[in-house]
Every structure is written in structure tokens, then in C-alpha cells.
Amino acid sequence: MNHLILAFKAYQSDVDIHKHSAYQMVLSTDNPFSTHCNGKTYNKVFGFVIKPQVPHACASPHSNVLVINIEPFSPAGKYLSVKLKEIENPIIFYTKAQINHYFGVSGKQVNPKDILNKLSSQLPLTSTDQRITKIISHIQQNHQSSKFSLHQISNLVFLSPSRLGFLFKQHTGSSISKYLLWTRLKNAIHLILSKKTKTLTQIAHESGFYDSSQMTKYMYQMFGLSPSRLKQKSDLIQLLDEYSH
């Protein structure tokens, strides 16, 4: 899977105006909804795509929506930056057919798995450089450590920190620090949605953050959603992490 894509289903949910650092796609799998993007309201839409830092809100009381967040410095983010380069307003989809055409998938219905596979297939995070593969694996397995350092992980592959940083960005499109932050946030979201008895402080520590305040700061900056709000709506949200490329 592409660890720089975060996708989840939200059931019959409203979100107030906010903005964040990730590229975002919100796509209905059944009924139309309303959105307010960049100062304009769009009614009876089936989806939209926005750049980072675009103020937006959603009202989907009768819809199940697929929300896809993409790290802006990843290959996926760079692909979208080119695709959206000359577009100031959000891309709005008024039919399901428009969604499928945009993503290049077939069918009359919006299939989350098809869209995620199509998007992820263009942006593989699998590196042919075994050193980078080893670092990616190390980050995924040890992201919860608060003592993570570039010097420490560069020693694992016998490279200088600057050389490793260059190679990592060359192969993934993201810096090591941004990849580590994304991995921690993704883990935190998974725990919030799946381990409902855990406190936000426990989740923050288990995800590699100093405390819940730091986790809240970065989660809101990246996704426009606070951990406490996510926890309140946990019964209405399903994290999608089982797609391949």
C-alpha cells in the first residue's frame, strides 16, 4: 500500500469550514451532498478535489463519502499538483460518471477500492534501492519512538544523514521527517478509530508524539480534524488501509 495516502469512509457526517496541508478528495458512494469550497457553495454534488490550504466544509447527512488525503510532497501529491496546476477553484463532480472518468475507472457506481488502486498504482512507494526499503520498514516498525533521529537511522544503512535524506526524497518524493510524521498520524488515527477505550494521551505516546497537544496540532494541520472530534465520530468512520498497488 502507499503509506502517503490516507483514506477513510465517513457515514452521514457534517464537517465545519477548515483547511489543511493535504490534498483531499471527497467522493460520495451513494447520494449527493453539499460542500462549501473557497467561498462558494455547491449543492447536490457527488464529490470534489481540492488543493492544500483551501477552506472547505461538507454537509452529507444522507451520504456515505470516501475521503482521500494525500501527502503533498509524495509522488501522489506531485501528480495532483500538476493535474491541478491551472485550476483555482475546486474540481466538482456532479455525477458518479464524472468521478469514474476523472480517475480512469470503469463502472456506473463509485467503487472506493478501484479508485484507490488506480491512484496508488501510479505512485508506487516501493523502492528498488534496498537501503531505502530498509529505512521505510524501520520507520513503520519504530515510528512510536520519541527518540527517532536522522543520524540514528542513517547508521543503519551506512550513509551520511545528508546522503540518506537525498536518496529518500528521490525515491519517495517525501522527506524522512514528513514521512515519519505522516506515519505517526496514520497510526494515531487507526488507534482512535479502533481502540476506543484508549485516551488521547495514550494514543499520542503510542504513536510517537510527546503528548496529546502535539498530536492535535499536527493532525489538525495535516487533515483539518482534531483527534477529539475524530474520537467523537469514530462510530461513523472506517479507515481504509487494505488496498494494494
Explain how this protein is built:
- With 245 residues, the protein is α+β, with helices and mostly antiparallel strands.
- Helix content is 42%, strand content 23%.
- The protein has 2 domains: 5-121, Jelly Rolls (Sandwich), CATH 2.60.120; 130-224, Orthogonal Bundle (Arc Repressor Mutant, subunit A), CATH 1.10.10.
- It contains 10 helices and 8 strands.
- Strands 1, 2, 3, 4, 5, 6, 7 and 8 form an 8-stranded antiparallel β-sheet that branches.
- A hairpin with a 2-residue loop joins strand 3 (33-37) and strand 4.
- The model has no long low-confidence stretch (mean pLDDT 86).
Task: Considering the chains and any ligands shown, give keywords for the structure.
Jelly Rolls, 245 residues, eight-stranded antiparallel β-sheet, alpha+beta, globular
CATH level 3 topology of the largest domain: Jelly Rolls
The helix-and-strand class reads: alpha+beta
Q: Element order, helices and strands?
A: EEEEEEHEHHHHHHHHHE
Q: How would you state the average pLDDT, rounded?
A: 86
The tally of beta strands, per DSSP, is 8
Report the top-level CATH class of the largest domain.
Mainly Beta
List the total number of helices.
Answer: 10
Low-confidence stretches: none
Number of structurally distinct domains: 2
- Helical content stands at 40-55%
Strand content: 15-25%
Taking the alpha carbons of the first and last residues, their distance comes to: 6 Å
How large is the radius of gyration?
A: 18 Å
Using the 3D structure, state the CATH architecture of the largest domain.
Sandwich
Shape summary: globular
Major sheet size, sense and barrel closure: 8 strands, antiparallel
